[in-house]
Structures are given as structure tokens and as C-alpha cells.
Recover the amino acids of this structure.
């Protein structure tokens, strides 16, 4: 059945996951052609545009998804990411807050709210957002790593160090955390340990 709408969308998901962006884009566009109100296809097409660096187009797709389903939590979170990429931080913040309002356990929205809070000079708010994300998912490495960055910004180097160590404990191959830990150790004058971290980061 060439008009099997979910099959087109699902094929797009697999193609997107394997990095075949142009074919994924075609699948989502075909889905929308068959059913203009297919909310997931609009959201997924936004993800393709986001990966292609076309944030303005991604934003339009997410807005369309939300127009169809105002409670589509991932579309609100994704729209926040598009606004963040466009450096419209207040709008991004509102999107993440809306996602959390719909689903208080949306771990990515809490983490993203933390990122925007840190970027707009509110490290305390960032810390509480990251901590909430970790409370929901104790193994969410981005939140551990980002929490380290927030503590570093506040000059709380020992706390930052603990966060990066926790990140590495959860994922020993997370290069960015090794690099960040190295930078903290360097500031703490532990140069030999810092050297080991940098070497680990580029392994």
C-alpha cells in the first residue's frame, strides 16, 4: 500500500537513525503529503532540518506539530532546541518549561532548561534543572557533565570535579568529560592527573 502513512514515517525514523537525512526527509514529506496532520512526521521532519543545520525550517516543523497537538511534549522540547540554536533563549526557556508542564519527568527538557539558564547567566537555576534531570535518570551523562560546568562557573571546583568523575563513571568513553575533568585538575594544580585526563580524551 503506497499510501500506508505510518510505514513512510517509520521508515523515515530508521533512515534518520542511520544518518540518511535526505531519504528520511523524503519519507516524512511523503507522510505529510498523505496526511497533513501527522504530528510525528512534522516533529521528525524538524529533527532532519535540525541535523542539516536549518534551524529556521526545523522551528516551523515543530510549530506545526504543536499546532496539531498542543500537548506534544517532544515537539515543545525540540522547538526549544531550535530557538536555542537561533540564540532566542527566552523563547527556548518557555518551550522547555511547557514541555516540563506537560511531562514533569521529561529529562531532556530539564537538562535543556539548565543549558539555557547557564547561557543566560543563571547558574543556580541551571544547577537545580540538572539535579532534577539526574533525579529522574541517575545515569543521564549530559546532565552530570553540564552540572559540572555550572559548578565550575560558580568557582566550586571540587563539586565540578565530582560531577565530571560521575560522568566518566557512567560512561568511561565520554571524551568531553575527560577533557573537562582535566581542565579542573589543572586549575587545582594537579597537572599530572590533568595530563592523564587529556590523554584519555584524545584516545
Amino acid at each position: 500500500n503506497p499510501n500506508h502513512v505510518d510505514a513512510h514515517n517509520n521508515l523515515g525514523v530508521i533512515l534518520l537513525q542511520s544518518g540518511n537525512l535526505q531519504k528520511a526527509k523524503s519519507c516524512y514529506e511523503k507522510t505529510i503529503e498523505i496526511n497533513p496532520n501527522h504530528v510525528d512526521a512534522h516533529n521528525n521532519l524538524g529533527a532532519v532540518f535540525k541535523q542539516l543545520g536549518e534551524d529556521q525550517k526545523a522551528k516551523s516543523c515543530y510549530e506545526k506539530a504543536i499546532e496539531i497537538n498542543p500537548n506534544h511534549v517532544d515537539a515543545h522540547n525540540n522547538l526549544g532546541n531550535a530557538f536555542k540554536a537561533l540564540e532566542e533563549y527566552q523563547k527556548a526557556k518557555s518551550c522547555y518549561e511547557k514541555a516540563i508542564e506537560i511531562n514533569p519527568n521529561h529529562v531532556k527538557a530539564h537538562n535543556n532548561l539548565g543549558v539555557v539558564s547557564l547561557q543566560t547567566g543563571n547558574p543556580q537555576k541551571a544547577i537545580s534543572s540538572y539535579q532534577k534531570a539526574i533525579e529522574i535518570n541517575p545515569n543521564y551523562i549530559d546532565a552530570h557533565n553540564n552540572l559540572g560546568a555550572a559548578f565550575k562557573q560558580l568557582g566550586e571546583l571540587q563539586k565540578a570535579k565530582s560531577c565530571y568523575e560521575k560522568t566518566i563513571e557512567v560512561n568511561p568513553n565520554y571524551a568531553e568529560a575527560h577533557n573537562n575533568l582535566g581542565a579542573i585538575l589543572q586549575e587545582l594544580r594537579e597537572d599530572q592527573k590533568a595530563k592523564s585526563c587529556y590523554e584519555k580524551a584524545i584516545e
